[in-house]
Amino acid sequence: MASSFCSSFLVVLSIFLGLGTFVLGGNFYEDFDNLFGDIRVNIKDEGKSMTLTMDEYSGSGIVSKNEYLFGRFDMQIKLVAGNSAGTVTAFYLSSLGAHHDEIDIEFLGNLSGDPYLLSTNVYANGVGGREMQYYLWFDPTEDFHTYSIDWNPDRIIILVDNIPIRIMHNRQRIGVSFPTKQPMRLYTTLWNGDSWATRWGAVKLDLSYAPFVAGFKNFNANACIAKRGVSCKGFNAGKNKGLDKQNKQKMRKVHSKWVVYDYCRDLRRYAHGLPYECRKDNLLESQ
């Protein structure tokens, strides 16, 4: 019985290793490099938690050591409290170059007492412009909450505390670009975006409130590390191509109350016609 269990375990382990699977409760020391900000990146608790700081001189950020092609990425974040106008706290995947792919979760700071905007976007082959923005149903500065990117070849799901707020399906068959080929690194950053972040740049960063500090902990990834000789094609696929009935209902509830901006409804921006995937004949029923 014991030998049978060991054999089964080794088979599963070899499959994981063969696929380049990266399954862990992440460690900020082991899994990331300092991107910018020097000592403003403060990793603590033996790598289990971190703060990023922005002051009058610089923001700060980290980038994953590995590149990934598909997976689920979770991060618990506590956002900058008080007057955070002009700040951008970001948790995102991105490749490099003019034709890069990118999956964004960005938190756009605001004046004290006004809510944050959670902004999501997707770039494929260098083309973005697919923003959806939300208010949150809690104060994200009071405690940590879990924000997730779940990405496979068929769809991308953005989640808050395991509640789906957005799903983007692969619509390549109708000519809509989707990130399927470019490995991406994971970034976590805090920086000055006051040229656009708060009321489209009308409200600037007030350095009298500096330093601005955001907290991060319990990073987790179940992802395929992209490297020579490893195929990530089927990773994270099949078991959840979309949303089940219960999660569709949760997402509809979020959309009915908390969506602030949806590019598919922006008739001013697209006065000459909505993007192809937003047009009535091409919309997916119930996502």
UniProtKB/TrEMBL annotation:
<dbReference type="GO" id="GO:0048046">
    <property type="term" value="C:apoplast"/>
</dbReference>
<keyword id="KW-0378">Hydrolase</keyword>
<feature type="glycosylation site" description="N-linked (GlcNAc...) asparagine">
    <location>
        <position position="110"/>
    </location>
</feature>
<feature type="active site" description="Nucleophile">
    <location>
        <position position="102"/>
    </location>
</feature>
<keyword id="KW-1015">Disulfide bond</keyword>
<dbReference type="GO" id="GO:0016762">
    <property type="term" value="F:xyloglucan:xyloglucosyl transferase activity"/>
</dbReference>
<keyword id="KW-0134">Cell wall</keyword>
<feature type="domain" description="GH16">
    <location>
        <begin position="22"/>
        <end position="216"/>
    </location>
</feature>
<keyword id="KW-0052">Apoplast</keyword>
<dbReference type="InterPro" id="IPR044791">
    <property type="entry name" value="Beta-glucanase/XTH"/>
</dbReference>
<feature type="active site" description="Nucleophile">
    <location>
        <position position="106"/>
    </location>
</feature>
<keyword id="KW-0326">Glycosidase</keyword>
<keyword id="KW-0961">Cell wall biogenesis/degradation</keyword>
<protein>
    <recommendedName>
        <fullName>Xyloglucan endotransglucosylase/hydrolase</fullName>
        <ecNumber>2.4.1.207</ecNumber>
    </recommendedName>
</protein>
<keyword id="KW-0732">Signal</keyword>
<keyword id="KW-0808">Transferase</keyword>
<dbReference type="GO" id="GO:0071555">
    <property type="term" value="P:cell wall organization"/>
</dbReference>
<keyword id="KW-0964">Secreted</keyword>
<dbReference type="InterPro" id="IPR008263">
    <property type="entry name" value="GH16_AS"/>
</dbReference>
<comment type="function">
    <text>Catalyzes xyloglucan endohydrolysis (XEH) and/or endotransglycosylation (XET). Cleaves and religates xyloglucan polymers, an essential constituent of the primary cell wall, and thereby participates in cell wall construction of growing tissues.</text>
</comment>
<dbReference type="InterPro" id="IPR013320">
    <property type="entry name" value="ConA-like_dom_sf"/>
</dbReference>
<feature type="active site" description="Proton donor">
    <location>
        <position position="106"/>
    </location>
</feature>
<dbReference type="Pfam" id="PF06955">
    <property type="entry name" value="XET_C"/>
</dbReference>
<dbReference type="InterPro" id="IPR010713">
    <property type="entry name" value="XET_C"/>
</dbReference>
<dbReference type="GO" id="GO:0004553">
    <property type="term" value="F:hydrolase activity, hydrolyzing O-glycosyl compounds"/>
</dbReference>
<dbReference type="GO" id="GO:0042546">
    <property type="term" value="P:cell wall biogenesis"/>
</dbReference>
<dbReference type="InterPro" id="IPR016455">
    <property type="entry name" value="XTH"/>
</dbReference>
<dbReference type="InterPro" id="IPR008264">
    <property type="entry name" value="Beta_glucanase"/>
</dbReference>
<comment type="similarity">
    <text>Belongs to the glycosyl hydrolase 16 family.</text>
</comment>
<dbReference type="InterPro" id="IPR000757">
    <property type="entry name" value="Beta-glucanase-like"/>
</dbReference>
<feature type="signal peptide">
    <location>
        <begin position="1"/>
        <end position="25"/>
    </location>
</feature>
<dbReference type="Pfam" id="PF00722">
    <property type="entry name" value="Glyco_hydro_16"/>
</dbReference>
<dbReference type="GO" id="GO:0010411">
    <property type="term" value="P:xyloglucan metabolic process"/>
</dbReference>
<keyword id="KW-0325">Glycoprotein</keyword>
